[in-house]
Design brief:
Blueprint lengths: L1 H24 L2 E9 L6 H21 L2 E2 L2 E11 L4 H13 L4 E4 L3 H14 L3 E3 L15 E3 L4 H15 L4 E6 L3 H16 L3 E7 L8 H8 L5 E5 L2 H13 L5 E4 L6 H7 L7 E6 L9 H12 L7 H18 L4 H9 L3 E3 L2 E3 L12 E7 L2 E8 L1
Parallel strand pairs: 1-3, 1-4, 4-5, 5-6, 7-8, 7-9, 9-10, 10-11
Antiparallel strand pairs: 2-3, 11-14, 12-13, 14-15
């Protein structure tokens, strides 16, 4: 009788131990939030960002890394903010309520800046792979990080390139009046003036403008050497086509929003060797793992990278590495590791300054040549 009781106790202990071991080895689900414009005019750029995040999630899950002694199963929760600042705040609250451990996004400055406060209040780290307005990291939040150069750096590169390389004495500046476009245009104007050239026109439309004829007609009479535009490809392409139709002979420089493969399709015959773009980051051929990444991306999604997918991929991987270093997916525990991280990604060395901006940020100048964007200079 006594031995039967002992056997029963031993059996129960074994079951408890097995259950305990099983629980320790069970997957821990880690939710990663992603927010970008998945609908609307720039949805192709937003989907590009989402694809970069999905590829990173796939790779992380294939590695079966352990965090807190458990195999981490990463889950992407992707939300559409339609590039609308008001909707971005709603999306941010949705991701906070979903208890994500990190947010990759938003795509634009206009959405990233207002959303940042909600993530900061919740203590959730946010890395934008593409928002470039300096205000994003100037709000004083410890949770905000940026993976690419900001508008001060890009605006400086655009303005200096127009004056020093394209030998412009007079320039016209156009923007789309978004937080991104206007903020960047302000920096371009400063750089042009500092380089010794004159800004003879400062015009604008909206992030949905496709009829630029009135703006361009006004500019044509002033005969600028270079037209600089800060905005996205869906507005830049018709602007360039109409510029050609009016017979403007000025060289044309568009910001990173137009430095996409989609711009090549949309602008068509309006593209010549007098068209340039600047991009926050380095060209694929200079990315340490660029060639392999671009090939895998095309195989996985059957589309070419638009602009920021490599930076999204690195954002997800950097967050995961910080979690591993802290041995926790709890934002409060891994945030200090993220702030101090020094690692290498697809796009190169990754480390953040005290504000959360990427250190040693680069801006690439590209020229249209033989049907493609060709890198001609990298400015740091």
């Amino acid at each position: 009788m006594q031995s039967a009781v002992i056997r029963k106790i031993v059996k129960m202990s074994s079951i408890a131990l097995a259950l305990s071991v099983g629980a320790a080895n069970a997957d821990v689900v880690i939710k990663i939030g992603h927010a970008s414009a998945l609908s609307g005019p720039i949805a192709h750029v937003g989907k590009d960002n989402e694809y970069g995040a999905r590829l990173a999630i796939d790779d992380l899950n294939a590695k079966k890394i352990k965090i807190g002694g458990q195999v981490a199963k990463f889950e992407l929760i992707s939300e559409d903010d339609a590039a609308d600042p008001k909707l971005a705040v709603v999306v941010a609250q949705k991701l906070v309520d979903a208890k994500v451990s990190a947010v990759i996004g938003h795509l634009t400055s206009g959405t990233s800046i207002p959303a940042a406060k909600l993530y900061a209040d919740a203590g959730i780290p946010q890395i934008t792979p593409s928002a470039t307005n300096p205000k994003f990291t100037q709000q004083g939040f410890k949770t905000t990080f940026r993976m690419v150069a900001n508008d001060i750096q890009q605006g400086s590169a655009m303005g200096k390139f127009a004056v020093k390389d394209l030998k412009a004495k007079t320039v016209a500046i156009i923007d789309d009046r978004s937080a991104y476009g206007q903020g960047l245009a302000d920096e371009v104007e400063k750089a042009v003036k500092a380089s010794g050239a004159k800004v003879i026109a400062r015009e604008y439309g909206t992030d949905k403008t496709t009829d630029w004829m009135a703006v361009l007609t006004s500019i044509k009479g002033k005969k600028p050497d270079v037209v600089l535009y800060s905005g996205m490809d869906v507005t830049a392409a018709p602007q360039l086509q109409q510029l050609r139709r009016l017979g403007l002979t000025a060289k044309y420089v568009v910001s990173d929003g137009g430095c996409s493969s989609n711009m090549l399709k949309l602008a068509g015959n309006a593209l010549t060797k007098d068209v340039y773009c600047t991009e926050a980051g380095i060209p694929p051929e200079q990315m340490p793992q660029g060639k392999a990444f671009f090939q895998r991306f095309k195989q996985r999604f059957n589309v070419d990278v638009q602009i920021y997918a490599p930076y999204v991929y690195d954002s997800v991987m950097t967050v995961a590495q910080a979690m591993q270093a802290a041995n926790s997916s709890d934002p409060a525990k891994y945030l200090p590791k993220l702030a101090a991280i020094q690692t290498k990604g697809v796009t190169g060395n990754i480390a953040f300054d005290a504000k959360g901006d990427i250190q040693k940020a680069a801006v690439t100048v590209k020229q249209f040549d033989s049907g493609a964007w060709k890198a001609i200079a990298v400015v740091r």
